[in-house]
Design goal:
Radius of gyration: 13 Å
Largest sheet: none
Helix content: 55-70%
CATH topology: 434 Repressor (Amino-terminal Domain)
CATH architecture: Orthogonal Bundle
GO molecular function, one term: DNA binding
Pfam family, one: HTH_31
Strand content: under 5%
Number of helices: 5
CATH superfamily: lambda repressor-like DNA-binding domains
Organism: Roseovarius nubinhibens (strain ATCC BAA-591 / DSM 15170 / ISM)
Number of strands: 0
Protein name: HTH cro/C1-type domain-containing protein
Domain HTH cro/C1-type: 17-71
Number of domains: 1
Length: 85
């Protein structure tokens, strides 16, 4: 049973966000400008230093242009069956 911040599901989420941003041709600073936040927040989200809640996932999906359900499917597959909250 992994800790939630570095679990396989959390790592998969972070990587999916990075992959989606890069696929969209956005840098961290460009995404931060679109979201009206600091680039350091994007870096913390992508590195797993800060967790992403469901509402933030939807906002990120809109800003980057990805389907949040596809990212959730990636996280679901990666999350250990015995993962605890």
């Amino acid at each position: 049973m992994a800790k939630t911040i570095r679990s396989t599901g959390q790592v998969a989420l972070c990587q999916a966000l990075v992959d989606a941003r890069i696929k969209a041709g956005l840098g961290q600073a460009e995404l931060a400008t679109k979201l009206r936040c600091h680039q350091s927040l994007i870096a913390r989200l992508e590195s797993g230093q800060r967790r992403v809640d469901v509402v933030e996932l939807v906002v990120l999906a809109r800003a980057i242009g990805f389907d949040p359900y596809e990212v959730l499917a990636i996280v679901e597959v990666a999350t250990e069956p015995d993962h605890r909250i």
